[in-house]
Amino acid sequence: MSRTTRYGRRMLSLALATMVMAIFGTRVLAQDAAAGPTMDDFNALKVSVDTAWVLLTGFLVFFMQTGFALLETGMIRHTGAVNALLENFVDAGLTALCWWAVGFGIAFGATNGFFGTTLFAPGLDVLSLPMVDVNSNFSWTTIGVGTMFFFQFAFAATASTITTGSMAERTDFIGDLLYTAIIAIVIYPVIVHWVWGGGWLGANGFLDFAGSTVVHTVGGVIALIGAMLLGPRPGRVFGSPPKPHNLAYATLGTMILWFGWYGFNPGSTLGITGANAPLVGIVTLNTTLAAGAAAVASLFFIFFRTGKWDLAATLNGSLAGLVGITAGCAFVGPFGAIMIGITGGILVVLATDAVEMAKVDDAVGAFAVHGACGIMGTLAIGLWGDASLMVGVNAGKNGLLVGGGLDILLTQLVGSAATIAYVTVTAVLMFGFLKAIGRLRVHSDADKMGIDAYEHGASLWPDVLPLDNVPAGKTSPAIGD
Predict the structure, then answer these.
(1) Segments in 2-141 forming alpha helices (H)
(2) Residues in a beta bridge with 116
């Protein structure tokens, strides 16, 4: 045996020994060799593994902010690209602060059935506790409050980011900051509590594993209402929407989002030990099948209509499948996931057509992808749900199209309708207020020179769109339309 081989084996043994010490702690080494690790050691290991899993998947969900930024930037005109990038970036930072101060407490504090009443501005005394110690609804998970805070912050940032895409190129920047804060404090966390925090919907059997309703329906409905009250972009011709300025950005953004969805859905198990280990595999498989089926369905659906292989439609198709399967990824089998994907891939095209016919300028198709397909995915559990995967009051029940009854479908319908009603009312009040104070639409000067030049004095492509004639600052405050 060569010296190099012996050295390599010694280093490997040292690495393995270090890992064992990190997992079981130094106290194991002080025990009698025959005794082995105690049950406390195994419990500590379970907590460590589950925490590492949730943090890793949370990092993936946060990375989706990059995907949203690139997708939105690529799908709009280049005169609004800098604005889109800054909005996506700052939304994450502002949401973090609002989520810590208020949103997390409303979402996951001790429940009265409608909103949380504790965990506002949590400190070290709370963040180090297990979730079960602050909300008994989480008795099945081992992760701590701090880990849960970060994972759910990444979800919260997504809800307002969905909205920025629909309202791109013509929203006042201060208005964007204000509505981002309101969504993180008032609108989004209430729905989270209803479904995931021990509130009335979850308690009555409503199912949404990773957020087709909680994240995507909420974001999609807010986006639609915002676009309606905001009005169209200057020169917008309905029936002939502006072409994406950079499909390379859009494609890269979509691929990042698909990748990040493996944090979104599998991470929502909130652990990977015990019974969660096989469930993670099912969730991951279903997520993949739905995305693939939706992308192919959109690709061919558009081709049969236009005779062209459309990249932008295929990108949105894949996202439609991902949104659709998010609610039921842990409750349907592979065939159900494929059917949800196919439905989403076609629905996103039809919903885009409907929004266009209604003369609402949704710059990136946010409602079609997140709103329409979020609703579809929520209801699809009542159609394709598998009895072997159902939990709680729905345990042992199949969906309507696989031999079951209407019970699950009706529960899903009530939950989706209640969410839409609450979000619609609050979003109308929010955007109506911003419009009344002149902070919804950017100043009309921005329509002439482009929002990047007006709001930021910048251009994504200065060699293509120079800023020679742009004034140093705004000539007047933003006004409503």
Answers:
(1) 3-24, 27-30, 39-75, 81-98, 104-108, 124-127
(2) 111
Beta strands in 181-318 (DSSP E): none
CB-based contacts of 399, cutoff 8 Å, min separation 6: 332, 336, 380, 381, 382, 383, 384, 385, 386, 408, 409
**Rounded distance, CA 270 to CA 458, Å?**
42
**Beta-bridge partners for 332:** 385
CB 179 within 8 A of CB 98: no
Rounded to whole angstroms, how far apart are CA atoms 193 and 450? Answer: 40
Sign of the CA dihedral with 34 first, then 37, 38, and 39 last: negative
Q: What pLDDT digit, counting tens, does each position of 319-368 carry?
A: 999 999 999 999 999 999 999 999 999 999 999 999 999 999 999 999 99
CA 426 to chain CA centroid, Å, is 20
The full set of domain ranges for the chain reads 3-37, 54-444
Amino acid identity at 194: W
Helix (H) or strand (E) holding 202: helix 200-203
Q: How many residues does the chain have?
A: 481
CATH code for residues 54-444:
1.10.3430.10
Structure token pair of residue 161: 């980011």
Distance of CA 394 to the CA centre of its chain: 25
CA distance 260 to 320: 15
Summarised one tens digit per residue, pLDDT across range 435-453 is 999 999 999 999 888 999 9
pTM (two decimals): 0.89
Tell me, what DSSP letter sits at residue 241?
P
